[in-house]
Amino acid sequence: MIARAALALLCLAACGAPPPADRPVPPPPPIDAAVDAPPPDPATAALLAALAAQRDQACACTDAACADEAAALAVQWGLDHPDVVRAATPSPDEQAAAQALLEAAEHCLDRWLGTGSPHPDH
C-alpha cells in the first residue's frame, strides 16, 4: 500500500500536476520562442534523477523490509521536495521516461510487497 501511494504521489509530480492556486500560470511563450528547443528544466531533471534512484533502490531489494523502506523513502522524498515536484514541467518524452521509471519501481516493489512472495522471480 505504501509503495502504491509513493508511486501515485511521484506520478502526479512526473505527469505534470496542475500548479497550485496561489501560483499564476505563466503565459505561453511567443511564437518565435516555440521554434527553439526549450532549455533544460532543472526541476524535471531533479525529479527524473530521483525517480531513477528510487527505481534502483527498489530493484536492489531482496526482501519485504527493504521494499517497505524503499517505498517509504520515495514518499519522503516527495514530501521533502515539494518545490521540485511543483516546479517540474516535463515534456511528453520526459513524462514517458518518468512513467517508465515509476512502473519499473512498482514492479520491483511488487515482488516483495504485492504478493508477499520471497521469490524475486515472481
Number of helical runs? Answer: 6
Number of domains: 1
* Oligomer status: single chain
In angstroms, what is the radius of gyration?
A: 16 Å
Low-confidence stretches: 116-122
Cα-to-Cα separation, first versus last residue = 18 Å
State the order of secondary-structure elements, H for helix, E for strand. Answer: HHHHHH
Structural class: mainly alpha
User: What does the average pLDDT come to?
Assistant: 78
What form results from the Cα inertia axes? Answer: elongated
Number of distinct beta strands: 0
Largest sheet: none
Proportion of residues in helical segments:
55-70%
The percent range for strand residues is: under 5%
Describe the protein's architecture and organization.
It is a single chain. This protein is an all-alpha fold and 122 residues long. Helix content is 67%, strand content 0%. α3 runs parallel beside α6 (92-114) and α4 (64-80) runs antiparallel to α6. The model is unreliable at 116-122 (pLDDT under 50).
Write the layout of secondary structure elements.
Elements lengths: L1 H13 L16 H5 L6 H18 L4 H17 L1 H6 L4 H23 L8
Helix pairs in contact: 1-4, 1-6, 3-4, 3-6, 4-6
Q: Would you summarize the structure shown here?
A:
With 122 residues, the chain is mainly α. It has helices at residues 2-14, 31-35, 42-59, 64-80, 82-87, 92-114.
Which characteristics define this entry?
122 residues, 6 helices, 0% strand, mainly alpha, elongated
